[in-house]
Amino acid sequence: MDRMDNYKQLIFGAKPKWTVILTVTACSASALVLLLKWFGHQQSWKKIQKAKVRREKSLQRAEHAVCQFNESHPETDTSLILSLSLAELSKQLKDGTLTPQAVFHSYMEKTLEVNRRLNCCTEVLLESWDQLEDVDSHKDGLLYGVPVSIKENIGYKGHDSTCGVICKLDLPATGDSVLVEVLKRQGAIPFVKTNVPQGLQNFDCGNPIYGLTLNPHNPQKTSGGSSGGEGALIGGGGSVLGLGSDIGGSIRIPSSFCGICGFKPTANRLSLRGASSCIRGQKSVLSSLGPMARDVDSLALCMQALLCDHMFRLDPTVPPIPFNQQVYQSSKPLRIGYYENDGYAMPSPSMGRALRETKALLEKAGHTVSTPQPQSDLFLVVRGLLGDGCTTLLSHLKGGPVDPCLRDQIIPYSLPRTVKKILSILLKPIVSCERQCSEGNVALYLFSKDYIHEVIAEWRRCELDVLLCPMVGPAYIHNYPGQLTSTLTYTIIYNLLNFPAGVVPVSTVTAEDEEELRHYKGNYGDLWDKLYKKAVTDGEGLPVAVQCVALPWQDELCLRFMREVEMLVREDKK
């Protein structure tokens, strides 16, 4: 009997029986796998729908509460309240000119309006009304009566911190994160959670649970990530102060894209306890929680409020270093390092122009600007961040759909190890890193430490106080960030180095910038340079920012430098 006879017998129900048995078993196993997958997707869909219903109910209840307040307090000047800086708002709250109730409902109303346009909120924290009733017990707090928005991954008792992944749904926090506790002790009122990209490891802002967040200046553009909901809400006027997290630019990029200020402190200057993540455990590229706001003074006030004895007691692993107001308010001339191009990603015309204009303003104001050699070890960064081959991140994506903003990015992460090895040989620049890091995570950690000290030694040799450098931008078209992780070199390097870094908007994209972009070739003229050109095109009117950097634990000096840039730019526009 030949092979064809076996096939005929199998098709028509004849012998041999072992073939039938094996085929039936295989079909049953395949059917079981498909059934389990279907069941898993059904469970995921139910979880997503439940989360959406929960969000919608919180928004509706907030809308109802705002309407009730407006009817009973028609004298409230919402426009005036929303126009005040954090410093002005705080002053008027403390002297009784404004009530916490008027400020809270004014910002809640604006948040609901901004969310309808930009889809930036994941849930209104309804407990904030209870806190509002008791807020006068914290009248001495530095943030008394100030509504504060918080990124979705920051723990708030009774609420999920999903990081945009389905497996973290229906796992509400059993207590507040340390920074939320400190905010409350300082009289602030956390009132809303804001959207994030799926898994947090992306600088777009969409996930299968809460959807896509839009840029407040142009809905065709992303708000950035991973603190993209914060960037959109603050940039849209719905929040005066927010908390984000940053492991590769996640505070700085949304701040740049949305035209606000953002600050990544030295890691462990602020407590991370109670913040959720999808890549916990890696020690080379460090994450920080930090403030986002409309101006630098607001960032400084937030840092001052958080760096208090209460935080140091709640988390004794944080060095008890209070905010140094003297350094922040100093007017001493600075020695500033400066570079326009790190050799990986050439800045867009608007980025380059904004940097040069800022440099000229600083020199005119009496500061010394020098140009040290930029140092950026991209591959050490990548190996540190994805040291487990992205296994941890991928495990969080199982059991549900992958968002379009992340899909292109994770394709290489999902390749078999053999294929990755072959690609690392073909892509020659990665070979050196492959050799460097072949000894494992301990060796990688030691390489990182050596690299940090090499960079610090170069700063000392050049006698630098701070550094002015490019900031990723202007805002990209949706779904391009996942294809352009190569452009993160300007931000992620300062997570590896653990240098405090912040972003200040200094300009907007002009028609001349757009014309010059038409001739943009990049450093290499390769696929990534061409993608970048497409990503930032049609950006006229979008904000453009610069990045300010200082040495580890010199957070106040970094903020002081940011304030100097902000002040000089503001005066130049008068």
From TrEMBL:
Annotated keywords: Hydrolase, Lipid degradation, Lipid metabolism, Membrane, Phosphoprotein, Transmembrane, Transmembrane helix
Enzyme Commission code: 3.5.1.99
Similarity remark: Belongs to the amidase family.
Protein name: Fatty-acid amide hydrolase 1
Residues binding substrate, per UniProt: L200, S226, I247, G248, G249, S250
Membrane-spanning residues: 20-40
Record carries keyword Hydrolase: yes
Residues of the active site: K151 (charge relay system), S226 (charge relay system), S250 (acyl-ester intermediate)
Family matches, as Pfam families: Amidase
Domain Amidase: 105-559
Phylogenetic lineage: Eukaryota, Metazoa, Chordata, Craniata, Vertebrata
Single GO MF annotation: fatty acid amide hydrolase activity
Reaction(s) catalysed by this chain's protein: N-(9Z-octadecenoyl)-taurine + H2O = taurine + (9Z)-octadecenoate; N-docosanoyl-ethanolamine + H2O = docosanoate + ethanolamine; (9Z)-octadecenamide + H2O = (9Z)-octadecenoate + NH4(+); (5Z,8Z,11Z,14Z)-eicosatetraenamide + H2O = (5Z,8Z,11Z,14Z)-eicosatetraenoate + NH4(+)
UniProt GO BP: fatty acid catabolic process
